[in-house]
Amino acid sequence: MLVIDPEAYFELNKGKLIILDEIQRVPELFPLLRGVIDRRRRQGFRTGQFLILGSASLDLLKQPSETLAGRIAYKELSGPTVPELPIQTAAEQDKLWLRGGFPDSFLARNDAASLRWRSNFISTYLECDVPQFGPAYPP
């Protein structure tokens, strides 16, 4: 429903936290969000209406036509820290060093599954996210 009629989805879920992940991939939501947030403010809703997530945070900042200034707070999140991970032995420390700190890679059932996850992540990042950071060039 969000894809078909985002405004109706937002209205249907008014009063609930709506999580929008990878929003930089749907820039047409920015003008809609601005209007929805402004209308809700007039109705008495203040903060905590939307949790907007994006792995390519530079894209969020490059939305020139529809700023959410005064309507948004930025919080950069890091990956899990060592104390948050189930590391108790030297072998688990080695596993963290070899697999990295991404939860899906670190917690994979074996090294092959971890490598597969990291390979897919790198491919997706290079093909989808990195090109958004600069000028587009034909392949």
From TrEMBL:
Domain of life (superkingdom): Bacteria
InterPro entries documented for this protein: AAA_14, P-loop_NTPase
One Pfam entry for this protein is AAA_14
Q: Which SUPFAM superfamilies match?
A: P-loop containing nucleoside triphosphate hydrolases
Residue limits of the AAA domain?
7-79
Give the protein's recorded name. ATPase
